[in-house]
Amino acid sequence: AAHPAAEAEAKAEATAEEAGQAGGVVAGERLWVTPWVHQILIEVRGWNWLSIICKCYIECGIFFAYSVCPLLLNVALSWFNTWLQESGLTFEIVLVTTFLVGVVAFLLPPVPGLTVYIFGGLVIVGSCPYGFWWGAFINILLGWVLKLFACAVQQVCIGGLLGRSSWVRQTIGVHKVAIRCVEAELRRPGLTWGKVAILCGGPDWPTSVLAGMLKLSLWQCELGTLPIIFFVVPCSLSGSFYTKKGTSVVWNRSANLMIVASLAINLLLWALAAWAMQQQLDKNFVELTRPLPQNVDLEWMDYRAAELDKEFSVPWSRVPMIVRSLYALGAFTHIVVGHSLWWGYYSLFNHFEVSSDIETLKSWFGDEGIVTRSGVLVLSVYLITWTLYVQFFLWVHCKTWRPRRRKEKDLALREDVWKQEWLQNARSWVPPEEHRTFCA
Predict the structure, then answer these.
(1) Three-class SS of residue 243?
(2) How far apart are CA 135 and CA 236, in angstroms?
(3) Interatomic CA distance for residues 214 and 175, integer angstroms
(4) Distance from C-alpha of 24 to C-alpha of 17, rounded to nearest angstrom
(5) In sequence order, what are the beta bridge partners of 230?
(6) CA-to-CA distance for 357 and 222, rounded, in angstroms?
(7) Residue 212: which H helix or E strand, with range?
(8) Cβ–Cβ under 8 Å, residues 126 and 243
(9) How far apart, in whole angstroms, are the C-alpha atoms of residue 25 and residue 257?
(10) How far apart are CA 132 and CA 51, in angstroms?
(11) In sequence order, what are the residues at sequence separation of 6 or more whose Cβ sits closer than 8 angstroms to the Cβ of residue 307?
(12) Please, which residues have CB within 8 angstroms of residue 153's CB and are 6 or more apart in sequence?
């Protein structure tokens, strides 16, 4: 009979061999982790890390802009509010000036509408010769008209101009299913829940500019934006109530309540917009996935970009160790900075609202300024580490620009033939069986 210890050892080896094969490792290979974890590490190692790191830089940059820019805007609007109060201008001139400042603020992508409405409440109520409530009512009306006017300018002027660029349209993806769902809902005449939710709940600048790029009816978009009044009212009242701050705790709580109400309305609109897009996809899946002949140029640009990426995408292993290490270090630093802004915002920046007195601001930096010493350090590190992205971009450019130019010339020769074939396929396109089943 075999010895019990030998049997146990043989059984353990067999189990390890089976586990190793399940985890994609060679039998007998010594692992520092379990086979399951080892397999996950192999899969992670195969990810396109260059693309992932590039997206980290972009998303962290967007988060950084939306974290820092509103604070700077608060300082500018607070100073402007103080100047208006001390300038002795008539109430009519104050209204016109506030309107023009609001239009300029709405034309800046990182500026949230909430800040503009609060600013209007502080300025107009503080200058109104007819009393508090009349000033609050005028501010609501002005904010409503301001929103509609700014949306029209963004749609016609900015969106209309950007829509002429094929590169911008291709980058935004106006020919993709997601944007086509939005377009289908916005093209519905009259007032619909989805249309109102997208136009009123979406980000101010991107939504109106997208409507211009899609060449939507200005009248229909303005009609769908009219219910924004239900968002403007609590935002404007919060600014109006801030003028009573310090006189009673009721006013302070009312101002905070109005901000909470505006956020709740915005979340509801986001949920309705997502529901409307899903409804469009469920009901019109075939039409929304049908290739459109007018998008042939955008489809060609997608194909061209895919061919160039396939030909000249640099794998992680071919990048020199020093270049990719610095590239990854910069992305990691940006992620850490983003977390610092999220979790430790008031350790990096001192609290300053539009309603704050500009006289309390002694300097830009330090304990009595906008940016604390820790904030200066974090901002400096963030800006400096962008050089680590630049060094990688320059290395890739120097490595691929000659063969890339040759490939671009070759693709240019094939462009007309490719477009003709694509148009022929688009005109004869028949939805696959699974598409018809999906819509049934």
Answers:
(1) coil
(2) 11
(3) 10
(4) 11
(5) none
(6) 36
(7) helix 204-213
(8) yes
(9) 59
(10) 55
(11) 407, 411
(12) 103, 106, 107
Separation CA 112–CA 89 (nearest Å): 27
Residue 162, both tokens:
């950007």
What Å distances lie between residue 301 and 252, 295, 306, 321, 412, CA to CA? 54, 10, 8, 33, 11
What is each CA distance from 318 to 325, 330, 389, in whole angstroms? 12, 19, 17
CA quadruple 250, 252, 257, 262: dihedral sign: positive
Q: Choose among 263, 149, 164, 247: nearest CA to 213.
A: 164
Mutual angle of helices 113-127 and 229-242, in 10-degree steps:
50
Distance in Å from the first CA to the final CA of the chain: 68
Tell me the CB-side half-sphere exposure of residue 74, using CA atoms within 13 A: 19
Q: pLDDT by residue for the chain (440 residues), tens digit each?
A: 445 445 544 554 444 444 444 444 444 457 777 888 878 888 877 788 888 899 999 999 989 988 887 787 778 777 877 787 777 778 888 888 889 988 888 888 777 777 788 888 878 887 888 888 898 899 899 999 999 999 999 999 999 999 999 999 999 999 999 899 999 999 999 889 999 999 988 888 889 999 999 999 999 999 999 999 988 888 888 878 777 766 667 776 777 787 788 888 888 988 999 998 899 888 888 888 889 899 999 999 999 988 888 877 778 888 899 998 999 999 999 999 999 999 988 888 887 776 677 777 777 787 777 888 888 999 999 999 999 999 999 998 888 888 888 888 998 999 999 999 999 998 888 877 665 555 55
Q: CB under 8 Å to 152, separation ≥6 — which residues? A: 208, 218, 222
Q: Quick check: helix, strand or coil at residue 245?
A: coil
Q: Which residues contact 67 (CB under 8 A, 6 or more apart)?
A: 341, 342, 345
Could you give the angle at which helices 193-201 and 218-225 cross, rounded to 10 degrees?
A: 80
What H or E segment, with its residue span, contains residue 416?
helix 386-427
Residue 188 CB neighbour total at 10 angstroms: 14
Half-sphere exposure of 178 (CA within 13 A, CB side): 5
pLDDT single digits (tens) 36-76: 887 888 887 778 888 889 999 999 998 998 888 778 777 87
